[in-house]
Design goal:
By secondary structure, the chain is mainly β. The chain is 10% helix and 41% strand. Strand 6 and strand 7 (91-96) form a beta hairpin.
Amino acid sequence: MDRDGIAPALAPGEASGLSQEAGSVEQLSLHCAEGSLEWLYPTGALRLRLAPRLPPTTAAVKGGSPRHVTACVKPTGTFRGAQLYLEREGVLELLLPEAPRPRARCFSWLPQEKVALFLQATPHPDISRRIAAFRYELRGDWLARPALPAASLGAEGACRPCNDTEILMAICTSDFVIRGSIRSVSNDAELQESIIGVSAARIHRQKFPLFQAGGRPGRPMGSIRTPLRCGVKPGPGTFLFTGWLHFGEAWLSCAPRYRDFQRIYEGAQRARQNPCEFPVD
């Protein structure tokens, strides 16, 4: 938990209900872009004010400020003894019930809005084995409408193809940009996710080693996720896959065919409207 004004890349936090009285509410702030929280022996409630110090995103490229902020929370397998709510404009909305399935929940708000997470302990005669633990991510504009998990809030339009502007911005700001082909598509009905197996011909960018050597000689392999409702099918051709790291997994934002991307980028270059330089061959 970032309590001292320093915002590291990953901020773990821990709280304990042993120091709280029943019915009390402890106020904390989340400033880090991502992190985790463990609440041991939940008693009373925690109110977590969301005040992220956001890393540069689309807004930095355009020279403006984010249109909205997006947060995601994902429970660990030890989430017991509490329920997590989103507090917005004085109204509570349940995000995570007690003992939830390990799905991420996401929501967005305008920078001027005040939102918080409200972690409410549930009554139990024995709290000694209760730990409410979850991970969180706080980000500015997620470019090109990343296809967040099906359990997310406000993910409308995540399955529509990216337009030219979104594709150009995605190559500049995404966590990964991979040129490659689809090797397989598998579906997880329980998590409502499709997992795309990708063979990479060229890794233009990856902030973390998502694609590792394996499979065909010289062809790194990796997987990218997208909501099951998007109906991804395997098909021939070369694509440019872009997207974001979401709780350690790659999630798709844009995936134009590479020849279509070349046409879009070269047209933007001629018009001097490309937001960044990108190698095209």
